[in-house]
Amino acid sequence: AEASSRGEDVETLRAEADASSEMLAAVGQQLEAAQAGMDQIKDARDALATQHKLDTEEATERETSLAHELAQAREAHHQQTQQHLHQVQHLEQQQQAQQQQQQQAQAQAQAQ
């Protein structure tokens, strides 16, 4: 009876060991799946960080380009304004000279 009891204990221990092995294998598979998920998350995060860096660099380049274009436009506007003012001054001088000539002609005509 003792040997039979030991045989049953051994069978029970083997069954428990097999069940534990199956549980360990299942846990191992779950760990592998979790690690694969973590790797995917890391890869996605790295891709987003890279894209963000590229987007930031592109935006910075565009901002620099627009600032340069704006500076050029301001300079061109300033030059055009100065040229326009010079033309206006020149026209005013011509107009004053014509008025003086007319006044002198009228004075001469009245003097005669």
Structure write-up:
With 112 residues, the chain is mainly alpha-helical. Helices cover 98% and strands 0% of the residues. It contains 1 helix and no strands. The protein is rod-shaped and about 160 Å long. The N and C termini lie far apart (163 Å). The mean pLDDT is 93.
Q: H/E element string?
A: H
Mean pLDDT: 93
Q: Uncertain runs with pLDDT below 50, 5 residues or more?
A: none
β-strand percent reads under 5%
The major sheet is characterized as: none
Class by SSE composition: mainly alpha
Shape: rod-shaped
Give the helix tally.
1
What portion of residues is helical?
over 70%
Q: What's the count of strands?
A: 0
Gyration radius, to the nearest Å? 48 Å
- First-to-last CA distance: 163 Å
List the helices and strands and how they pair.
Blueprint: H1 2-111
Q: Can you summarize this structure?
A:
This protein has about 110 residues and is an all-alpha fold.
Summary tags:
single chain; mainly alpha; 98% helix; rod-shaped
